Amino acid sequence: MSVWAVLAAAGSGERLGADRPKAFARLGDAPLLAESVTRLDASDWIDAIVIAAPPGWEEPAILLTEELGAGKVTSCVAGGATRAESVRLALAEVPEEATVAVVHDAARPVLPEEVVGRVLAPLSEGWDGVVPGLPVADTVKRVRRDQVVETLEREGLVAVQTPQAFLAPVLRAALADSGEASDCAALVEARGGRIKVVAGDRRLLKVTTRDDLAAVSAYL
Ligand code: C5P
């Protein structure tokens, strides 16, 4: 079994208000991207890594992986206008023989090794994909502008994170449909794929704002 990681790092990160793409915002002494690259490279589960970098930032991303000595990074492509497009472009660099693709957001720098193991295990039990999820603590409502339209029943809701693991051919087929979604699992679900949820991890917090950078630093 060969396991390839696709690291989605091409977002602009406008909400962070930095003068550079989010993947290159500072987290401690290094760019945000360094943390997830280092962790994926050190993972016993991962064989190779492809990075979708912000367009125009491929060169700095490659230099960073060299500095980090991240030998599993095989290529770095310019990402697309949406997350799905970035994953699609990176997956094109993953060889046909790959059995499993693990898609991870660079915006979730603190990637615990045990979560990688958790999302991979069920793939040998007939699942098409596996996502980490956490129970939702807040009440979730659907709104239109400032008016509540519907209150969702909290029971049965999970907040889904990355890394998400898929049988590589299944993910490839789902991405070929050129659909858009905020995670890859949704594209697989849309084609009738079976996705399992395993326990997520609070440390997999997604960096969106400056406050998130501070919160994530506490987990380093
Ligand atoms: O913008 P959002 O929070 O959904 O981004 C999640 C992840 O997807 C981030 O790691 C970001 O770098 C990545 N992304 C991407 N290409 C885009 C948009 C987001 O790789 N066009």
Main sheet specs? 8 strands, mixed
Helix proportion range: 25-40%
Question: How much of the sequence is in beta strands?
Answer: 25-35%
Number of helices: 7
Number of domains: 1
Distance between the termini: 31 Å
CATH class: Alpha Beta
**Gyration radius, in Å:** 17 Å
Heterogens:
cytidine-5'-monophosphate
Instruction: Categorize the overall geometry.
Output: globular
Order of helices and strands: EEEHEHEHEHEEEEEHHEH
CATH topology: Spore Coat Polysaccharide Biosynthesis Protein SpsA, Chain A
Give a verbal description of the structure.
The protein is α/β, with parallel strands linked by helices. The protein is built from 7 helices and 12 strands. The protein has helices at residues 32-42, 58-68, 83-91, 113-120, 168-176, 184-190, 210-217; strands at 3-8, 26-27, 30-31, 48-53, 73-78, 100-105, 129-135, 141-144, 147-151, 158-160, 164-167, 195-199. The strands form 3 sheets. Strands 1, 4, 5, 6, 7, 10, 11 and 12 form an 8-stranded mixed sheet that branches. Strand 8 (141-144) and strand 9 (147-151) form a beta hairpin. Helix 1 (32-42) crosses helix 2. The longest helix has 11 residues, at 32-42. The mean pLDDT is 96. Cytidine-5'-monophosphate binds at residues 8-11, 22-23, 52, 79-83, 86, 105-107, 182, 206.
